[in-house]
Amino acid sequence: MTSVFLPVQELSDCGGLNHQANEFSSQVKSLMLLTLGLTLLGEVAGRKTPKAGDPALCPPLEDHTVRVDIRILRQNQGIPLSHGFQNRSSTPWDYNVTRDPHRYPSEIAEARCRHTGCINAEGKEDSSMNSVPIQQEFLVLRRESQGCSRSFRLEKVRVTVGCTCVTPIVRYVRGLRAADQLS
């Protein structure tokens, strides 16, 4: 498209072109204003207004410290276990409570397998199977070593939570004869 620029007095002599040019100019201005308005509307809609409690309003945790209320909410929500649960297993276990005043929780119940083998249907230990501990890692709070400080650090602890019965791992040495293995 070729643009033609005429002086204003010549436009007045063009028999209605001046009116058409003004109308076209007005339409272009309206279209540009509409485009600008839609662009601004898109920008505003794309921004999220932070609300109270929004993490975007919170300061960064550069020093890696947080404040924690250690009271447990809904304490009674746990699933109650049968009293003899650990006694009915084919790999029974006992619980030992460890206490540490510098840890939260200060008491943790840890399982200890009663036997090295598993209990068969007759109630006898079967040494052809192995009783092994089931372990779980937990996060606890460890009090900083500044007396009765209210400062704690997160610490991972591995706790035996029960025992299970497994087949033993058997490794054979190549090249040995059965007679050599017995002697």
UniProtKB/TrEMBL annotation:
GO terms for cellular component: extracellular space. It comes from the Eukaryota. One of its GO terms (molecular function) is cytokine activity. The keyword Chaperone does not apply. Keywords: Cytokine, Disulfide bond, Glycoprotein, Secreted, Signal. It is found in: Secreted. InterPro entries: Cystine-knot_cytokine, IL-17_chr, IL-17_fam. The keyword Oxidoreductase does not apply. Coiled coil: none annotated. Pfam families: IL17. Its main location: secreted. GO terms for biological process: inflammatory response; positive regulation of macromolecule biosynthetic process; regulation of gene expression; regulation of primary metabolic process. Belongs to the IL-17 family. Homodimer. Forms complexes with IL17RA and IL17RC receptors with 2:1 binding stoichiometry: two receptor chains for one interleukin molecule. IL17A homodimer preferentially drives the formation of IL17RA-IL17RC heterodimeric receptor complex. IL17A homodimer adopts an asymmetrical ternary structure with one IL17RA molecule, allowing for high affinity interactions of one IL17A monomer with one IL17RA molecule (via D1 and D2 domains), while disfavoring binding of a second IL17RA molecule on the other IL17A monomer. Heterodimer with IL17F. This is Interleukin-17A. The lineage of its organism: Eukaryota, Metazoa, Chordata, Craniata, Vertebrata.
